[in-house]
Amino acid sequence: QSVLTQPPSASGTPGQRVTISCSGSSSNIGSSAVNWYQQLPGAAPKLLMYSNNWRPSGVPDRFSGSKSGASASLAISGLQSEDEADYYCTAWDDRMNGWVFGGGTKLTVL
Amino acid sequence: EVQLLESGGGLVQPGGSLKLSCAASGFTFNSVAMSWVRQAPGKGLQWVSTINNSGGTTFYTDSVKGRFTVSRDSSKNTLYLQMNSLRVEDTAVYYCAKYAGGGGWSLIYFDYWGQGAQVTVSS
């Protein structure tokens, strides 16, 4: 049972827009920045979004992030086949004194 | 170019010990905090431990407290994870990750990850 709650799966067709949610509490998302990671099959995680809505260099602007209260979301527009991966949200948790992750969302491009 | 290279993984019996290493290059190692994150087979990511840039502050997830010890050697640009009293449920790929950002623990994030080291605990 993960501290942050994500839907286990999401899907869309090429060109569509999909959104992945991440729900937490006042001790984590409600008081910390949210970061997102993309994990392609068989690979290490890669930073996709940091500080709620900032993209690292090299990440397409098709990816965007937002946060409101104790929830956050990752949006992917213009879906492409190479976006098929697992996506994880994470944040610092004041109560646990450590980082917590969502359970991950497997994105399928139909 | 930032590189993080884990080593030291392997097969160990329950109750045994293993020490992971993460050789870092491409950045000023003694200026950044580092972490270990693991992923059990077919499961999601789980944060394991963090050490600040000087090594004076460490954090652990509850399930490894008292069994795992994180440390770093700035002269060797290497991060370590000493794992004792290993359990079957510790079986996972262990990633080392470096932090970026500033302003406190709640604002920093893992910006680079190694390729991982497989740890299997089984009799």
Explain the layout of strands and helices.
The complex is a heterodimer of chains A (about 110) and B (about 120).
Chain A: E1 9-12, E2 18-23, E3 35-39, E4 46-49, E5 63-68, E6 71-76, E7 85-93, E8 98-101, E9 105-109
Chain B: E1 3-7, E2 10-12, E3 18-25, E4 34-39, E5 45-51, E6 58-60, E7 68-73, E8 78-83, E9 92-100, E10 109-113, E11 117-121
Parallel strand pairs in B: 2-11
Antiparallel strand pairs in B: 1-3, 3-8, 4-5, 4-9, 5-6, 7-8, 9-10, 9-11
Determine the structural class of chain B based on helices, strands and strand pairing.
Answer: mainly beta
Stretches with pLDDT under 50, minimum 5 residues of chain B: none
Number of strands of chain A: 9
Helicity of chain B, in percent?
A: under 10%
Order of helices and strands of chain B: EEEEEEEEEEE
Number of helices of chain B: 0
> What's the shape of chain B?
globular
Basic shape of chain A:
globular
Please state roughly what percent of the residues of chain A sit in beta strands, choosing from under 5%, 5-15%, 15-25%, 25-35%, 35-45% or over 45%: 35-45%
The interface involving the most residues is between: A-B, 29 and 25 residues
What Rg of chain B, in angstroms, do the CA atoms define? 14 Å
Alpha-carbon distance between the two ends of chain B: 40 Å
How far is it from the N-terminal to the C-terminal residue of chain A, by CA?
A: 28 Å
- Listing every helix as H and every strand as E from the N terminus to the C terminus, the arrangement of chain A reads EEEEEEEEE
Mean pLDDT of chain A: 96
Work out the helix count of chain A.
Answer: 0
Low-confidence stretches of chain A: none
Oligomer: heterodimer
The main pleated sheet of chain B reads as: 7 strands, mixed
Strand content of chain B: over 45%
Structural account:
- The complex is a heterodimer of chains A (110) and B (123).
- Chain A contains no helices and nine strands.
- Chain A has 110 residues and is mostly beta strands.
- In chain A, a hairpin with a 2-residue loop joins strand 5 and strand 6.
- Chain A is globular and about 40 Å long.
- The termini of chain A are far apart.
- Chain B starts with a strand and ends with a strand.
- The model of chain B has no long low-confidence stretch (mean pLDDT 96).
